[in-house]
Write a structure and sequence with these properties.
The protein is built from five helices and seven strands, in the order αβββαβαβαββα. By secondary structure, it is of the alpha/beta class.
Length: 161
């Protein structure tokens, strides 16, 4: 019975695509606390990109997005939040990396993997698109050149709902 209930709930969660952002507080690279559930307070879509400083595909993806981010913002009002999963000593590399690459998006630190676990992120890079009401509407793991086009397509689709 428990197994059946679990499978039903899992199926319902998967099919609904309406999971909410969790009530988790992380710090940004400036040390300010940010409640993740409040990322969509402006009612616009949010892209959450999980990355690590040691992950080359993550850095390629965030760099590709950086190239078009101003255009995306002008067109859709989307906000990108990069979430570092770096732990220990490597977490000290996040701020200098973001500054050296001139990222114009907010960078949050998840050194204990609280958000990563809550959103069931298994590997990096993982991108999640959240609608203006805080519902998760898209998820993608891995990166291949040009896959950022799928991300903005999902943002546009979200705006049409």
């Amino acid at each position: 019975m428990k197994k059946t209930l679990f499978l039903f709930l899992l199926l319902l969660f998967t099919l609904s695509g309406r999971a909410q952002l969790p009530q988790i507080t992380l710090k940004n690279i400036g040390g300010k606390e940010v409640n993740v559930s409040q990322l969509t307070t402006e009612g616009r879509p949010v892209i959450i990109s999980f990355f690590a400083t040691w992950c080359k595909p993550c850095l390629r993806e965030l760099s590709a997005i950086h190239e078009v981010y101003e255009d995306w913002q002008a067109e859709t009002g989307v906000k990108l939040v990069a979430v570092s999963i770096d732990e220990g000593a490597t977490s000290l590399k996040v701020k200098p990396l973001a500054q050296s690459l001139d990222w114009q998006y907010e960078v949050l630190l998840d050194p204990n993997s609280d958000l990563k676990r809550a959103l069931q992120v298994q590997l990096v890079p993982t991108v999640i698109v959240v609608d203006g009401k805080g519902h998760i509407v898209y998820r993608h793991s891995g990166y291949s050149e040009g896959s950022e086009e799928e991300i903005i397509a999902q943002v546009r689709k979200t705006l049409k709902r």
